[in-house]
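Researcher: We're teaching a course module on how sequence relates to structure. For the next exercise, students receive a sequence and then see the predicted structure as tokens, so they can try to spot secondary structure elements on their own. Here is the exercise chain.
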Amino acid sequence: MIFIKNFLKSVFKEIVRYSIGVLILVLISLVVGLIISKIFGKSLTTVYQVIGVIIMSIGVLSIIGTKTIMLGHSYSLSKHVVGGNLVTREDIKMLFQGQRFSIFMGISGLLIVLIGWVV
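Model: And here is the predicted structure for the students to work with:
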């Protein structure tokens, strides 16, 4: 019971931490989009949608890069030189971190696109 309570507490802390990060990224992107819109005279909706798509694309490229690195021949060779078990744990950790970053960027970009449609 205590394990489940501690687990849920740590999950909640992670969700709050990522939510704050998403909020900060969205606010910074909105300010940058407003400045770009004023400087170039473009529609605020268009600028926000483009910024949102760029941020989502960064997340997609992150997952593609992580998988490409892990499937690369030179990476596989270096894994065998360094050691077996520890590198496998690091591979899994790297894969999950790449997916977390991708989800973070995807949610942020989606929020910016949605704000662009509302504005």
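Model: If you want an answer key for the exercise: Residues 2-118 form one domain. The two ends are 47 Å apart (CA to CA).
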